[in-house]
Here is the input.
Amino acid sequence: MKRALFLTATALAATPSWLSAQEAVPPPQSPECEGSDCIITYPRTFFDKYSPITALDVVTNTPGFQIDEGDRSRGFAGAAGNVLINSERPSAKSETASDILSRLPAGAVMEVQLIRGQAGGLDLRGQSVAVNVILVRGQRRSVTYEVGTNTRSIDVGFYPFSVVSVSQSSDKLDITFGAEVERGIFQFESVEQVLGPNDELLELRDEEYEESGWEWKVSANGQARLGDYKVGFNAAYSDRRRDGGEISERLPTGDPAPFFLLQGLDEDEKELELGADIERQFGKNWSTKVVGLYRREDEGNGGDLSRGPTEETVGRLTDSNLETLETETIARLETDYSGWRNHIIELSGEYAVNKLDSNLSLALADTPGGELVPIVVAGGETSIKETRGDFTLSDSWTLGQLVLDTTLAAETSTIRQTGDNPNSRTFNFFKPSLAASYSPSSRLQVRARIERLIGQLNFGDFASSTDLGDDEILAGNPELSPDTRWRFSLASEWRFGDLGSLTLTGFHEEISDLVDVLPAANGRESIGNIGSATRTGVEFEGTLPLSPILRGGRVDFSGFVQDTNVSDPVTGLDRRLTDLRNWEVETQFRQDFPQSKFSWGGVLVVGSNVPFFGVDELDTNQRQIDLDIFAEITRFGGLRFRLEFGNAFVNGRIRNRRVFDGLRGINPLLFREFRDQNFGYRVTFSVRGNF
Here is the structure.
């Protein structure tokens, strides 16, 4: 695979005459680590060979760096990513730093600072590597846009998408407005065999899945400088709808007649977010920042199941509808003090209120097309409210080439549940951490960290839900507790040349109260705490320049190898953790021809299977090799024309589901479902530019 990709790259580089231009010599990156501050500065011109159109194009080509968007954890304290803009974090959660950067022209970037370890009091929040994107002030108004079309199959046609943003910067105000809309379709085909305990064929299934929908979004973000104050703000609203389902033709062996099973879906999701922050410097050594955010997510999920002798004569068997409304309100205060020599101290406090209202309705018919009779699902109607406080005191202490980061943090939360399964509980956690980074030179840094992490509960696990595809009801659990873990990590980072880098990180986690699946009443299953677990492994990432062997070429890679272990609550035996791979590798290749303004490359992802351990089933999913290829050119009018061919091997996923006649691994095997899904290819053509 890699050899074929390499040979293709060599051939492409050698053939057309307009691609034979010499690679431009990249401007040197700023040196060196001074004391403990390991910041490598890349000026905007360093990225010219990649012909960037947006600020995001600049950041994604930073050597030895891969964007981490953070997550949607409740609150700000645990949701931080690794991208700062003008030394600040956006006061947003639904809007990532990548979203904001994609709306800014590349010309708005003055430089990119790659931060390794801890430096200068920047708000890294536990990230060992981050970038700080410094923007040019006083930029004229700029419009950035992208229009394109994509398809999953020529047979279903092409679906359009478009993105446009307007940005302007002055000495007093930076502001960006954005809007985007997309119409899309997703489909795949599957062949599924149902096998008996001795692998005898019981049923053959020919399945087609298709869903279509659209999404639109509007946003605004910016920062105003008002005397001694800096005021940031953001707003975003999105609406997403999709519908479709699966048609399954089922051919049993023996006497049963063939039949069709149709599963339908109808989903609607609306999200609103408003955020703001105010920051002021008090004298030389003090600064204070206040952050506020409100987020609301309204979602409806409808589903149905029908059966009949032909596709046109099916009758309804099941009807379900899950309505959820989730809101989040956050207030955060941060104070920094740098008047103590070689120390930077930060004190922060956060108060958050999260709410979820969930209502599940379910109706069943005895025969296809018969009367749908509503049934009561325990935990189907419930309301959950969490009030949480988070307090942190941290000190970054510089000792020559060594930096010690000490953090004392505590979290308290109260969760109240009303409706079905009423309950109220209070949790208190201590979350200390100690990190050290040692930089003997600008090319080498060693980092170590010990920290206690608190898991994030999914409010949806408190309420009941359905899985019509597997004919299951997942019971809600009002007694669910967050898991806690001690994480130990040791990393070493080497940098060579202008592009080369390699980072190896070894880690070990001791986990308590792991959240997984437990047996529930009436033979059902629910999410619960199953005890202690461990996770040990190695993570790696880096950038490998291919010049002079392949002029203008580079490979960015990342991955991990890990071993996980927990005592199974059903069998009592040791096993892997649910939903975690043992290993995964992602490799990104690109070759740039700066004078010709042409680039091409691809992304290759491979990994081990993903297991799911249910009470009465064992389910493994193996994603096959995924290869995406692209080619783009920016030589015509400053526009970027890009063609992407996704899933080039036309692969899919293999699912092996084993269902037992009772408890998994204890009772005998009832049947096995072996499904080979073909996701098909993806073709996307887009034009991006700005003026």
Summary: Residues 121 and 344 are 6 Å apart (CA to CA). The chain has three helices and 37 strands. Residues 1-28 have pLDDT under 50 and may be disordered.
